[in-house]
Structures
1.
Amino acid sequence: MKVLIVEDETGLLELIVRYLKREGYVCETAATFAEGYRKANNFDYDCALVDLNLPGGDGLRLVRMLRQENTQTGIIIISARDSVEERVRGLEEGGDDYLVKPFHLSELNARIKAVMRRKTGEFSKAMTFGGLVINLDERSVSAGGAMLKLTKKEFDILLYLARNKNRVVTKDSIAEHLWGDYMDEAASFDFIYAHVKNLRKKLAAHGYGDFLKTIYGIGYKFEVG
Amino acid sequence: MEYWPASALRAAPGKNIGMELWIALLGGVLAGALAGWAVFRWQARRLWRNLGGIKLQRPGEQLAAAGAPLLRPAIEQLNLLLQQMRQEYQATKQFTQDASHELQTPLAVIKAHIELLLQSPRLGEQEAEALGGILRNVNRLSRLNSALILLSKIDNQRFPDVETVDIGLLLREILENFEDLIGLQKIEVECSLPSGLKFSMSASLAEILLANLVQNAIRHNLRGGFIRARLEGRRLEITNPGKVLEGPTDTLFERFKRDPDSEEGLGLGLSIVQRICKLYGLGLQYLHREGLHTLLIDFPNPAPANSG
């Protein structure tokens, strides 16, 4: 999959590229409006991450252009502007999702997969790890053919970890993913701990408990071979 | 104004006439003083009326000198002073906002670095633990910064998404969203939140306001405690049992006031609540009795529609 990343903060840009390359994506970058414009004009991308505040022009114009060129491109706006109007405008101009800075790389990664699934079906209806199947349309999970009874939040945690498989996902990233910004840290960590424990118990009952690793003090990892 | 040339007195032919003159003089002085005082009162009243009618809450407002011409120079000076203060205050506000915004990017870069470092297969347990510590504090910094940005945005009234919000309905939704968290702490929720109280305000601020109240009631609750949320008429009441607060309660809404025993809160939640209430003219009170903490919010009647 080919991804265009337009972001003027080069430090952040480089880190995004490093994170996404591990997913096997081919990453093209641009640090200015002009560069972004040229690349968006000359090449086709499966997905584009566009910052709105760019030297030389408004990122929204890039979004509009990318959308006109190709309706299949997944476009995610990444911006420090967080007002409701900005978000609405970004989506109206053709963005598929809007992620407010600062964000977790694991959140960005999960959003890319969600957008690509909606756009192209490239990430299919189900994620399969051996005998463990996460069915995205029905929001259900089966292990070795048996359906698991998961709560909504348990499913969300599992899906988030699976979308970041083989990576350490921090607790606060999970907390933000589940509840958004205004969440109490200590309380939400207790909650996540309790739910991962239940989730692991349910997976272990079918012999899949090893998928969920605890990284002490930091977070969790969904580990598959 | 009562000037009598001395020669006129001396030239007076008789004692009686001199006496009359003295009386006339005294009367003149008195009448003058009375008249002067009356004019002063009249002017002063007009000025007070003027001053009393002015609410200097709206930005850019000035004192009017129209009714009191004598006081115009003083009022103009005052206006100049007000304008200067306003400009300086604006500059300070702008600085706070810019500073917080500038902090966002380096914070994002630090977070991203840590997230990448955590993926390294060579990471030992000690290193991972140290990174976890750094991450926790960066996150705290980041949340603190977001809260400060929010506060400065409330002060700058940057929330145009005004809607008619159903307070009872919204609070029920928020309680539902926190349901699992409330359940985990074995807190009972008793609510009587009928729909129907509609208030015109920014939808996002309404959500922030109510979510902060609910979080506050969860955070400062006792394990196995309860949250009682009641909406009666135009008054919202949220009560929870909790530790007795030490010290005066009137500083409760100040920034960075928080429970010294708990490390969780940023100390900005109630400050945000207070700012939102002030912005929309909501009455906010805190009551404490026998281990019960209650926050009361009174929603004012909507302003009558302009018939003009």
2.
Amino acid sequence: MTDGFQPWLWRHRLFRPAVLLLALLVFLLAGAGTEAQRSEPAKALSKKLMCLCGCNQILGECNHIGCTVSTEMLNKLDERVARNEPADLILQSFVQEYGLQVLAEPPTTGVSRWAWLMPPLAWLAGVGILIAVLWRWRAVRAAPSARGPALSSEALARARQQAAQETETDF
Amino acid sequence: MDLFGSYALILALVCAGYAVAAGIAAIAGRKILLTKSAYQASLAACVLITLATATLVFLFLTDNFSVAYVANHSSRDQHVFYKFAALWSGQEGSLLFWSWLLAVYVFFVLWTNRNRHPELMPYVAVVLASVQLFFLILNVFVANPFQVLGTVAADGSRQVVAQPDGRGLNPLLQYPEMVIHPPALYLGYVGFTVPFAFALAALLGRYPGEKWIHITRRWTMIAWGFQSLGILLGAHWAYAVLGWGGYWGWDPVENASLLPWLTGTAFLHSVMMQEKRGMMKVWNVWLVFITFLLCILGTMLTRSGVVSSVHAFAQSDVGHWFLGFLLLTLATCTWAYLKNRDYLKSENQLDSLISRESSFLFNNLVLLAACFAVLWGTLFPVISEAVQGTKISVGPPFFNKVTIPIGLFLLFLTGVGPLLAWRKTSLESLRRNFGWPLAAGLLTGAVAYPLGLRDFYALVCFVLSVFVALTILLEFLRGARVIRARTGMSILRAVEHLTMRNTRRYGGYIVHFGIVLIFIGLAGAAFNQDKQMEMTPGTHMELGRYTIRLQTFTQRPGQNYVAERATIEVLRDGQSVMLLYPERRRYHANGMTGTMVSIYSTLREDLYVVYAGPSPETGQPVIHAYINPLVKWIWLGGVVLVLGTGVALLPNRQQALAFRPVSERAGQPALQPVPATRSQDAHD
């Protein structure tokens, strides 16, 4: 090979920048792997849906590689998010397609609203019962006399022992 | 050998049946000899169940694949460790294991109380034998682990057929923790039978006073400690094996284990009100009843297929039996209560709203509210389907929304409750006990918020954690300073002395401290990050402050599997810090696959890497990495919690000298102090 001979391509002014760009691309692709991340809106929505493969997991957390159910559902989700459909509409379309059980939490309408109502109602009922019990206990408590009878030393010792037992010995 | 096991179970069933019948007849006729006979029958049943269990273990260890249960849950190349663990890996074996653990409890209860509480123990023995009888009925008639594989010959005779090899244990169960987790959890579930038996027996026999509570305190704590350990080990197993990056998925089976733990915790607190003040007798009896019923309900949920769960055993008829037992037990408890409720009248009333008593009431309310919320969420899909014919899901978002506020309130009470005085707490006492911790907690919040900690619940959790941890620490320090002033010993020695002088109280504080650590760890979940990528050797991904570089991707043979293993270099701030080896194993016996997660764990965060398998589209390995902050605090808190339970179970080193009487200071004769002896325990 002589110094004077070079293929025409090598002599092209864009050749070197093209090679450099190609090398950079190869390096970047090789160095960064293929990211399988979905967009933030899709990610957020995937946490509001359940995978229906039977794993009982959130759609975005189903970790069965090759799980056809979650793959299909996630692809549909990605497509709808890419079309800029509103989140409510996307969730509604999933409910129409898979039924209410696709939602990760019960809706706040119909019978399902009782899922949300019952825990606070039970809590309120508990507080009500507690207040009633406390009120009753305080009401029936005998008023302490201002000046009681003189105590014997044995009675005083017993009282101290009882006080110790009730206040000190345990947790 | 399978026949030996079957006969042992049948004989145990006969013995347990006799123990129930003879025990009831002995109580009705007040016949001491018949009572002893019933005891002996119960003990014999325990021995026979032990023989049956040992037989099944032997069948596993000798690869006897003519037995269906062995063939379905073991294989020749399975490690001996997992052949042993296969005992409780399926429906039939786990029910036998349950019976055996119950037998161990029954044996110890009857043996340790053989010459004590003659009026109470006959009732206790009958209740325990009845529970044992139910499980033996399941073992013999419903889920017999000794069924053999066979064919029917032309002449109608049955021939046993031994398979050359078994199907092997489920890969998810081939993990060291799975050898410890189920026994620990079962010891918790089964252990609550003991306080239940004593509570029902005391009610049936109108046994006087708080004696049944004193007797069962340790048994309850043992059951509670094992339940806690089992739940934490289960969470760690889910974290390390299932590969979804979390430790608690609010799965129905996980919830089922939490329910009796919550009511058991409530009981452990409210029982003190009965011991100290003779209050809440009805409440305590029902708490024990409910705890036992929830154990049975949890078992039913796990085994019946009523709710769908990845953890559940195969669907079977066993659920109907559990439902029947549940209703029968509830009816018996209700009948016993209605018959003898007069005996459960409170002796004292509440003196002040700001007192230890009222804090226990709130504690119980919160725990019961949490229990109801979890139970309601778990059962709601079934209720919804029954009411409107539509199946709905109740997933983690629901449970998180409902239970996190309740949990935070509980954390607050954990700090406040123990430092309130019995009967009445003065404002000065409130200021002294809570002033500094409250200021430190608020300061934590004030510093953390500008630093970027904006998640509301996480922020509240950190504030409360600092508050509670400091109240506990100051309580130890106050007591230790007094001892140091009196004895001159070092502060650490004084803390040890203080703890051992009242193990129940200070063991309880240690448990509370463990709970604080667990809450800190749980709060970290608000800041989780994750990333999933298809990678080839030499490629890398960035996650948080880590660079994760896939070095090699190889195949590695194991004893009964072949593993696809990724070697991953972890760089932090450009420096190589660790090599991780996540695997995906394929087991020879059944062709099933399982993941082995690799975790780089620090107190700050876990870098959790999963080799999730080859991509279906490209065939390239898929690596899923998570940054889970503060997870290690959960396991650390679990260790502290178990340690605290252990301390609380120890006998007190010395009786505490409660106070020095005024008369002594005035130069008058003093009251005799309690001698410093190594006592068993004030309550035993």
